[in-house]
Amino acid sequence: MANTNSPFGFRQYRGNGSSPTYEQITVGAGGISGGIAYNAGAIYYGDPVIRSSVGVGTLIAGVGSGSVVPLAGIFQGCKYLSTAQKRTTWSNYWPGSDVTSGNAGATEAYIINDPNAVWIAQSDSTGLAATDIGSNLDYAIGSGTAASGISGAYLLHTGAVTTTFGFRFVDLLWAPPGQNGVSTVGTAAAYNYAIVAFNSVETKALLAYNT
Fold first, then answer.
1. Where do the domains of the chain lie?
2. Mind listing the pLDDT tens digit for each residue in 11-49?
3. Which candidate among 50, 93, 168, 208 keeps its CA 20 to 30 Å from the CA of 69?
4. Angle at 77 between CA 83 and CA 82, to 5 degrees
5. Segment 161-211, tens digit of pLDDT
6. pTM metric for this prediction
7. Helix (H) or strand (E) holding 14
């Protein structure tokens, strides 16, 4: 049966902490300075995020597809003062515009940026092959879903030695049975799942931190 094209961003597979929060940290408000960039667009659960030049290191959804900016981490949700609901809201995704400009600095974003974190993500329509293991992979941000708050980000199949690519290809995900896999060992299949680690992330990259 053909694999289903249903990207979900980057879902943690292993880490130093414990499920479900692993090494989650807070950015903004009571945590590391920054928060989320005001009116810069939605950010979904599982999206790679980067630093923006709009504000002091505020977060925006990663752009992927050739970006040379190191990742700040993977988005896990946020807390903000909702203009529409007139109350503090905890959400697995950032809607992008439901705060007033005066309160934008009070947002909290929750991300995972541990350099040892390992993730599962879906590949594109070409798929990834076992022969690409060890290469660096770029990603596309895709389209998240507001109803669920889940990311639509996915991996691009072209493996390379490019040092600025966000992820390192560790392995294909072969189990459990029935999940998106490969048709024959070592060959690529459209929309298969891959296990990846961070390659270019702030906690281990030596590149500039914002856009």
1. 14-112
2. 998 877 666 666 888 887 665 667 788 777 899 999 999
3. 93
4. 5
5. 888 899 999 998 877 655 566 655 556 788 889 999 999 898 876 555 555
6. 0.88
7. strand 11-14
